[in-house]
Amino acid sequence: MVSGNIQKTTTKKERIAVIILLAAILLLYAFFLKDILIPFLKLEAKHDLEGANELLLSKGFFGSLAVILVEAMQMVVVFIPAEFIQISSGLSYPLYLSLLLCDLGVCLGATIIYLLVHISGFQSSAYRKNREKIEHLYVSMHERNTVIFMYLLFFMPIIPFGAICYYGSGSKLSYGKYIRTVATGVIPSIIVSNLMGEAGAAFLVHDLPLWSLICIIILLAAALFVIIYLFMDRFCFRYFDETPDSPMYALIFAIVRLWHGRKPQPVIDDQLLSETEAPYILLANHESFFDFYYIHQLAHPRNPTYLVNEYYCTRPVLKTMAKKAGIIPKKLFTAEMSSPVRIMRSLKKGYPVVIFPEGRLSPDGRSNPIVQEGAAFYKRLNVDLVLVKIRGAYYSGPKWRSKRFRTAVSIKVERVIGKDELRLMSDEDLNGMIASVLFNDASKDRLCTYPHPGKAEGLEGILYRCYDCGSLYTTVGKGNEICCTACGSRHTFNEQYLFDDAPYSIPGWYETIREAEREVIDSFCLHTDVQTVIYGANGGRKRRETGECTLSPDAFTYRSDSIEFSIPTDKLPALAFSCNKEFELYHEGELYYFYPAENRQQVARWALLVDLLAERRSTGKP
Predict the structure, then answer these.
(1) Which of 385, 413, 444 finishes a domain?
(2) CA dist list (Å): 65 to 25, 38, 49
(3) How many domains are contained in the chain?
(4) Within this chain, do residues 478 and 580 fall inside the same structural domain, yes or no?
(5) Are 297 and 440 found together in one domain?
(6) DSSP 197-211
(7) Which residues pair with 584 in a beta bridge?
(8) Where are the alpha helices (DSSP H) in 538-602?
(9) Same domain? 542 vs 615
(10) Could you check whether the bond before residue 279 is cis, i.e. omega within 30 degrees of 0?
(11) pLDDT, tens only, 349-404
């Protein structure tokens, strides 16, 4: 009973002491209210840095004290930004003094917040608005150390200092550890703001050139970014390095988001995905370079990793970025064990894996055949299989056109096949279902009209044979027309991205070319001199040389002064190519890019003939 009375007496004394302290602070604010604080806040509202500088200097010692009080007030009243007083302080005082004043102000504000939270349980409405962001970041951290987490928040520009202090005050940190964390955690941001103020003073007083001021501000912002990244990489996200939860993964998609621009933003139907738990395998058709970006916008329960062309994972800079982001490399159309092993490791960690089973972009808007069917592999993984169809992306950026159009894009989760259902399906049925669900014909599934000029630019890279006279390599795409230099025929696109007359569509023309090539499938022989670029295995040295390539129904052959090799066509499931540029393949782990010395329009023909040979093998038809 006596102990209880002592505890109540102690608590009462603590509250009286806190009330006296808060009253003293309020009186201090009242003393400064009329002559300094109100005029300063008015200048802040006008963003008048020069006026704020003159006010602080004119008040002498009281101006320095005003910096502390304003900084503290902006901590307690979370929605007021602290940068203005920090820059003003940098304009008015030497760096060491400005840093000290701002840090004292932060500590005073943090102390007030600590007392308010611990005595009355007070939380500002601005903190409540930021609580969700803080809790989301907290959950994403593996090491839930409150001090380190607070440092992270202070380094990030998205959370106000005051909100961080409200969070820290509500934790189990002692006041000593709490105030030390606050006092040191804000230093990098204060230094940057003070230095910006110093630079502003030099600009206003010492005629510093404007370009120099801009460069200084950019360098200071970059320095703060580097500090933030190093801290996050070292203390916060070590556990997530080389996974889709790493900072590098987020950076890659931030860069891609800027590159892609705001439009077109895809229309998304992912209701079925909301009922699916990670991990899973997601398969999608492949219409444009940005398909991985569109897939990323689905409501994945966890960030997915991607199976991508090994080329993007072995080049300088890209190699480091891809590794840190947990991206899985794959040699195109090459059987290997490393990719399946990495897929299984990602699934074991709980991350979905996205695969484009076509392995290349569609040439004519119809989905490519899946030359390396994976039903048996998907069934062994013991996870759900998600099938997604991308529509509209082909006309946004087909492989034959360099300019990207802003067009409608749709992403729909068509089907989710549970792992129990997968086990009951035959490999043949599953492969057939995947091909059927993912297949799309862009010419029959348009989402909008296309009033754009230049719809035929580069199309000769696919439609290399004239539809009317059958001549090879005489087609030219210009504006909205594709014409033949041999017979003079012209075919014009309308706003539906269709021709006004036969063959009516790109697939219609391309199918005519396929039929012409089928007639020579047993007797053709292609030969060309090439400029060759060889990328060494696993990011090895890049080499250049000249050589010659030959393709017949039996084999692909390459000869140069340094090497000669031949690949039977039954070991060549497909031949990747870039329109009007090159075709490519892997040999003994090295990636060969072959650039024809003449008439690069022919690369599409090499690829199509390899496709026809593969088609004949898969169907068994002569």
Answers:
(1) 444
(2) 12, 14, 18
(3) 4
(4) no
(5) yes
(6) HHHHHHHHHS---HH
(7) 576, 593
(8) none
(9) yes
(10) yes
(11) 999 999 999 999 999 999 998 888 889 999 999 999 999 999 999 999 899 998 98
- Write out pLDDT tens, residues 61-101: 666 676 677 777 666 664 455 555 555 565 566 667 767 87
Q: At CA 549, angle to CA 546 and CA 554, rounded to 5? A: 160
In a domain, 568, yes or no: yes
Domain span at 555: 526-619
Q: Which two tokens stand for residue 575?
A: 């031949």
Domain boundary among 471, 500, 518: 518
> First-to-last CA distance in the chain?
100
Omega of the bond leading into 264 within 30 degrees of 0 (cis): yes
| Preceding omega of 503 cis (within 30 degrees of 0) | yes
Are both 530 and 510 inside the same structural domain?
A: no
Q: Within a domain: residue 50?
A: yes
Closest CA to 589 of 306, 313, 358, 336: 336
| Cβ within 8 Å of residue 374, ≥6 positions away | 355, 357, 431
pLDDT value at residue 409:
94
Q: Which two tokens stand for residue 310?
A: 């090994």
Task: Output the CA angle 561-567-573, nearest 5 degrees.
Answer: 135
In which order are the strands placed within the sheet that holds 526-535? Answer: 564-568, 555-560, 542-551, 526-535, 590-596, 582-587, 576-578
Q: Band of the pLDDT at 105, cuts 50, 70, 90?
A: confident
Q: Would 238 be classed as within a structural domain?
A: no
How many percent of the chain have pLDDT more than 90? 47
Asked, for residue 451, whether it belongs to a domain, the answer is no
Same domain, 598 and 503: no
Partnered with residue 363 across adjacent β-strands are none
Structure tokens at 240: 């997530």
Contact by Cβ (8 Å): 77, 166 = no
Look up the pTM and report it: 0.69
